[in-house]
Design a protein that fits this description.
The protein is mostly helical and 235 residues long. It contains 10 helices and no strands. The protein has 2 domains: 107 residues, Receptor-associated Protein (Up-down Bundle), CATH 1.20.81.30; 67 residues, no CATH class. Helix content is 84%, strand content 0%. α4 runs antiparallel to α5, α6 runs antiparallel to α7 and α8 packs antiparallel against α10.
Length: 235
């Protein structure tokens, strides 16, 4: 909350002075409002990016975790012992999460409850597949090592295909980002170089210029979303 409030005040104050301050009060109010809105989103965007980064790291380590568990099960380890080996031998974040699984089981939770808690913390489709397979195997029996080996192969192939698709769609992604940020950068440059020219948007009637800027921003956002949807291929 402290970071969020500081971000709102800081970016809002920057918008106020960037808009002209007390000398150009109307534009300063508009830029302050935009700064407050942006400042309220920056911490959330940062946290979301960190979450996505951690989830991606977890998914990338999942196939290694399954391989380690398969080797342990074939060597005669129990499922619990294999999970303990994962929590000790693999790097974070997957070792951290499985260490919490081990701690929860030591405190009295069943393996199914501990794994479901892991899935709640890490909303990964690949992990959901692993947890479901382990739960089904405990109920109906079967060779868990063989099941996990098949899942590991599936996950590795999915990661490989995702990498190929990311390479193919990189041009579309970066083109979308460039085309989206270009008008914003150009408007900021014109505001610094020729503020009188940009102030035409804030002349009477004020609603006309503000509406044009708002419509332009809305179209930029729509174009950015469409470009990302084109490049977002689900595997």
């Amino acid at each position: 909350m402290a970071i969020l409030i500081s971000s709102i005040i800081g970016v809002g104050a920057f918008g106020f002075f960037f808009g002209g301050g007390m000398n150009q009060l109307l534009s300063a109010i508009i830029f302050t409002a935009a700064g407050v809105l942006l400042g309220s989103r920056i911490p959330r965007i940062f946290v979301r990016r960190q979450q996505d980064k951690r989830l991606k790291a977890f998914n990338d380590q999942l196939s290694d975790m399954l391989t380690l568990m398969v080797n342990g099960l074939r060597a005669g380890f129990a499922t619990m012992q294999s999970i303990v080996a994962v929590s000790k031998q693999l790097p974070a974040p997957i070792s951290t999460e499985f260490r919490r699984v081990v701690q929860e089981m030591q405190l009295g939770l069943s393996m199914e409850e501990a794994m479901n808690n892991l899935l709640r913390r890490i909303p990964s489709p690949d992990l959901d597949l692993v947890v479901t397979a382990m739960n089904v195997q405990r109920e109906v029996g079967g060779n868990l090592a063989e099941i996990l080996e098949t899942i590991a192969h599936t996950i590795r192939e999915r990661i490989r295909i995702k990498g190929e698709i990311k390479t193919i769609t990189a041009q579309v992604v970066y083109s979308g980002r460039f085309l989206s940020f270009l008008p914003v950068i150009l408007a900021a440059a014109l505001w610094v170089i020729s503020r009188d020219y940009m102030m035409e948007f804030f002349q009477e009637p004020i609603w006309c210029g503000v509406s044009i800027l708002g419509l332009g921003g809305l179209l930029i956002i729509i174009g950015y979303v469409i470009m990302n949807k084109i490049a977002d291929i689900e595997i």
